Write the structure tokens for this entry.
Amino acid sequence: MLSLEQLVQALRKSAGDSDVADLDGDILDLTYDDLGYDSLALLELFATLKRDHGIELSDDDIFELKTPRATLAAANGKAAA
Amino acid sequence: MTGTASPWITGLGVIAANASGKKAYWESVLEGRSGLRTISSFDAGGYPVRVAGEVLDFDAGQHLPRRLLPQTDRMTQHALVATDWALADAGLTPSELDDCSTGVITASASGGFEFGQRELQKLWRTGPAEVSAYQSFAWFYAVNTGQISIRNGFRGHSSVMVAEQAGGLDAAAEAVRLVAKGTLRTAITGGFEASVCPWGLVAQIPSGLLSTEEDPRRAYLPFDPDAAGWVPGEGGATLVVEDADRARARGAGRVYGRIAGHASTFDPRPGLGRPPGLARAIRLALDEARLSPEDVDVVFADAAGVPEQDRAEVEALARVFGPAGVPVTAPKSMTGRLYAGGGALDMATALLALEHGVIPPTTGTASAPPELDLVLGQPRETPLTTALVVARGTGGFNSAVVLSRV
């Protein structure tokens, strides 16, 4: 199971800390756009999730998964499957 | 580029091995303080080149949003911060500028070599999955123009000049042309280099033109009988170019000067027996400025530090100005050659010299040929109205810029 904490850690590591939001706050339903991350940042995030956690998300998911909650659901759904 | 309507240079931002920030840099240059050291950002013990002008005293994280750090090479971090400084120096706030008439024209030579090296190492060690998506642009020639535009919200005409060490002068001249013809009202120009890393060094070593001298005080001695190549450096400068009427209307605090003339030429193919194009570039730039050689108060030399190239430059200057006909200096002896950043930093230094009426010295060099009036050791105080900056880029590029006080 990928936790929000692990997701935030991967985000900081791959794309740099957010300058517009506190990633340790309540960010589950904020969009990545709101958090200041673009599609390339998410590409970096997904590469890190695969490398560090073995979670494979598709390139299309970059545009589908707009919030950390959606990413966690997809990641854990796939991890469980 | 003549007449009262020609655009003004109203802001400077500088990053170099001997100091960063306009004020600290200028003090450094006047004191003759060199930034050339034994390479320390990595172990260069196994390389034939041991000395460089590294920018070590600079923490990008103190100046830039954290999100930008993983996606930028150091040369881009330098470019972004120096541009912030130049805009502040000009008293301009990016959000208050008209976005569509503000553009960015930078010079590029190596690109983001250090970033590229890191990603190539990942590719080689573990495969493509490890490679950063940001590699797609972080190494690229156009990245500084792009990142400066994005960070500041500038949407006007933007481009990149690639002419090795001569590119910085060409980029500034292009910025001035675009403002003069009304395409832009404000232009950001400059160039940056930060390729002192193993890959960057290995790419430069085969030219045979870099100094292999291990003593930093002896490594880069332009025009000296002991000259044995140049030392690569990091950093560069940003210049803010503004429409003169607009700058006047807003009450711009300081006008450093203007580009009164520019020209670039290309050397003939080796073996043709024709002379190199540097003297012609100087004459054409003076023609455009409608000035004669006697009007030039100081020359900022290309100063390759390679004996054959030094001789060619001394000959070109003597042909235009007469033997020892004009004071010449090479403050890049304190920073190393910055390639894309070279022309921009030399222009910034020349503009500061015009402002203060002081010619900064060439350091390291102990003696110069009698045909050259090289300012050595100490700065030379003298009234300055017009400066000539020349640059040669490996491969045959020659450029010359005439800077005049307004």
About this structure: Residues 39 and 63 of chain A are 8 Å apart (CA to CA).
